[in-house]
Amino acid sequence: MFPWFGEIVAGIPAFERYLRLGELEHSTDRLAAAHPEIEVWSPGVSRAGHPIRCLEIPGGPLQALLVGLPHPEEPVGTLALEYLLPLLADGLAEELGFNFSVIKAGDPDATLLNEPWFGEPYDLTGFLLRVYRPPLHDQFEWTFPVSYKRYAFTRPLPEAAAVMKVMDRRPLDFYMPLHNSTFSGAYYYLSSEDARLQDELAAVMAAAGLPPDCGEPEMPYMHRLAPGMYRGISLIDDYEFYEAYGADPAVVLTFGTSSDAYAEARWDCFTLVSEVPYFTSPRIADQSPAGLTRREAKLRGLDVQEQLAQWLHERYVKAAPRITAETPWQRTVHAYLSAIKDDIRAGRVQAETEPEFAAEATVAQLFDQVYLRELDTLARLGQFAGMLAAESQQDDVLRELHDEAALEVRTRAERLAAAAGIEPVPIRALVQCQVASLLCALVATRDRYRPARPRPAEPGVLR
Questions:
Q1: How many Cα atoms occupy the beta-carbon half-sphere of 337 within 13 Å?
Q2: CATH code for the domain in which residue 249 is found
Q3: Sign of CA pseudo-dihedral 75, 78, 83, 88
Q4: N or C, where is the chain less crowded by C-beta within 10 Å?
């Protein structure tokens, strides 16, 4: 690790909140005014007509693309960019040897729906009740074109089309969508195994005080490289998982591949995803025996998820006929309820049939399956409350359902936090981890990964 990394990371301020979209836009204008060499252009507009802006910071000869808010409830990367962009413009880009294309907000429309919790990032219950995550087919991050076996997706959302326009503009050497997680330890997706970089990323997590995620992987098919390190994933992995465990992928899948999978396939570039959690517990890194099998731990978590999903379904059926206008909140709840049965069924088949699930679970795996799975499902109940909030003041039934959902979230969240030692992570630690990870990956790309080479296939649908 280069000596100047420490100085850069140490200079990150103690952020108290996340920036709103308007603040990000004003910051872009200020930076461009101070640095005439920076080009600001728009590769497209969002579904609601909001311009998606891209900053071009020269430094060459290599090319990097950074995209903030690939999911609208993941604003950690925006603070990493706010801190780094002036440094890149003042000479860091040239020192690293990269031109940088930067999109601060990949999904501006849905980001606005999340702004109510940006000012209170450490309130677990408030987060669960106000966080908005679109269904997969409404996430630009998962609507990049792909064709595989009996499934093809060729309808990128406008936001994805805008990012594709930047990707296809010139060969990429490095791509990083600035994700973060919600309830977990810290972990990474890498496009290629790199032992030196993995050691550096492990040191970055430790320096930031973040436990590596040693629970079950975020998606059940992920390939683990090391504690908190995974090979990057794509829609192909989803297809193979559903096909292996009893669901027809051509029916279940409604989305495309990820932006990093598209970039890697298009340019053979190095990609990194850095997942840093808002809330965590030391238990997520505890690899001591838990006293039951992985199968028992996963089935226990699936039982709780199924019970909560049924609870939500019953109340959604009561509420839906009384809703007078479709909202993003309703779309995401409806999509969740439509897909969750297939997800749970596939998860049960995997747990009951795969030999490795007969092994003893670690404390981290048990914690992940029982506590974090429930927290994730509670966020769906919170979205249901968000769906009802707009119309509950005029409808007694909707108001009662809203209050019931809010109480269920509050009661369960408080119990889970107390029982599992779940605490919020300081924003500064999250930004430090993400900035240091990015710098390490850029140097690894520059020094060890081969130069970008265009793929022979035409851009568009990737196989």
A1: 20
A2: 3.40.630.10
A3: positive
A4: C
